[in-house]
Structure formats: structure tokens, C-alpha cells
Amino acid sequence: MKLRQLIFWSVRLTGSCAGAILGFYLPMSLMVAFLEIDYEQALPWLLLSAVGGLFAGGFAVGKLLRLHRKR
Amino acid sequence: MSFIGIHLEVCGVIPFNWDHTSLVVVSGDGPNVCGHALIKVGFYYFHIAGLASRPYFMPEQGYRRYLDESGKTELFRRPVYLPNPEGAERKLNELSVDPWYWFGIPNNCVSFVEELFSAGGADESILSNCPVRWR
Q1: Which pTM does this prediction carry?
Q2: Closest chain A residue to the Cα of B33, Cα to Cα
Q3: Is residue B108 domain-resident?
Q4: Does some domain include residue B10?
Q5: Which residues does A70 contact at the CB level (< 8 Å), separation at least 6?
Q6: How many domains is chain B built from?
Q7: Which residues from chain B sit within 8 angstroms of residue A28, using beta carbons?
Q8: What is d(CA A52, CA B86) in angstroms, rounded to the nearest whole number?
Q9: Segment B97-125, tens digit of pLDDT
Q10: Which of B5, B13, B25, B121 gives B58 a disulfide partner, CB atoms 3.0 to 4.6 angstroms apart?
Q11: d(CA B11, nearest CA chain A) in Å
Q12: A28 and B36 in contact by Cβ < 8 A?
């Protein structure tokens, strides 16, 4: 694997991880509206959102890198 | 919503017996494979369960109701010796006043129990934050 490709995938992986963290923690800002909700009831939705964030983060970073390469 | 306990409204009304303190771990719901940690002080169980709510407590029958209604099973319990019960009592009163914010890996059910153990002078903590491995 070329170094350039390795860097591309590492940056993309970082974007995915950042997306997953944002996906998990951003919906928690809604907690002010659901103060008494059991965290175990919210957990499946938070994990689903984290998985969504994982793919969205990787996709967004990949797209940004490709745009940057075309320039 | 199933029964998860009652908020501790008035401090010092219920005499907690810190000489009989245990760590109690019950199974988790859905994707929570790590289980859920509670602390048992005398006849009362304490835990945090809300995303942003004050800690809950329940007596023995309330705990049975909690297990029944939420479909949980008790995985294990073990006694923990607290050399400083006054410290633990103070900490419990302090934590019962403000909402506990659940943040997933930090500030979860384990951190709540750890804080009480630590205030009571017990050297009990778990690095993985997974209560099922806290035997």
C-alpha cells in the first residue's frame, strides 16, 4: 500500500471515529427534554446514532480528501 | 416506564447501615452487555438510572419490583467494607441533591458506586467501567 493511500485511510478512520463520538454525544444534548428517561432506554438510539455518525464521518472526510486531491 | 426507584428527598431521615454495604450488579437492557451497578446499604439500594436525574433509592421490595418490571436478573453481589461510613453518608447526601449526568463511558452507574466507595474509604474501582467484570 502506498503511503498516500495509508494516510488517506488513516484520516478517513479518524473522521469516522469523530463522527461516531459526535453521533453518540450530540443527541444527548436533548437530555434536557427527557430528564427522567432511563439511560438504558436511550442507549440503543444513541448507539444507532453513533453508527450513523461513524459512516457519515468517514464519508464526509473521504469526500473532502478527494476534493482536495482534485485541486 | 418500569419502576427504577424513588428520589431521596430528605437527608438523614433513613438511618443507613453502612456496616452492611454491598456491590450489586444486575443484567443490562438491550445492547448494554456490561450490566448495571447498584450499591446496597443496609436494606436500601441506590443507583443512578436517568440520563440527567438525581440518584434513586429503593428498599428490598422495591428492588424486587425493579427486577420484575425491567426484566433484569441479579448477576452477583458481594460485600464491601467501608472504613469511613460518615464520609460515604455525606457523599450520598451530596450526590442526592444534584442531577447525575450520564455520559456513557465517564459518569455512569459504575462511577456513582465508585464515588460512594471512595468516600467511604474503600479502594474499589474498575478500569473497564463494565460492572459484570467487577466481581
Answers
A1: 0.85
A2: A40
A3: yes
A4: yes
A5: none
A6: 1
A7: 51, 103
A8: 46
A9: 888 888 888 888 999 999 999 999 998 88
A10: B5
A11: 21
A12: no
B13: left (phi over 0), alpha (psi -120 to 50) or beta: alpha
Query: CA separation (Å) from B64 to B7, B8, B70?
Result: 17, 19, 10
The residues, ordered by sequence, that sit 6+ positions from A27 with a Cβ below 8 Å of its Cβ are A45, A46, A49
- Domain contains B135: no
The nearest CA of chain A is from the CA of B129 a distance in Å of 15
User: Which amino acid type is present at position A41?
Assistant: Q
Q: At what angle do helices A3-25 and A39-70 cross, to 10 degrees?
A: 150
ipTM > 0.90 for the complex: no
Residues of chain A with a CB closer than 8 angstroms to some CB in chain B: 24-25, 28, 31-32, 34-44, 46-47
C-alpha cell at A4: 498516500
> Which chain A residue shows the shortest CA-CA distance from B36?
A40
DSSP A13-59: HHHHHHHHHHHHHGGGGGGGT-TT-BHHHHHHHHHHHHHHHHHHHHH
Q: Whole domain around residue B92: which residue ranges? A: 6-128
Examine residue B1 and state whether it is found in any structural domain, yes or no. Answer: no
Task: Tell if the CB–CB gap between B50 and A38 is shorter than 8 Å.
Answer: yes
pLDDT tens digits for range A6-63: 888 899 999 999 999 999 988 888 766 776 788 888 889 999 999 999 999 999 998 8
CA distance to A57, A62, B85, B108, per residue, from A19 (Å)? 4, 12, 44, 22
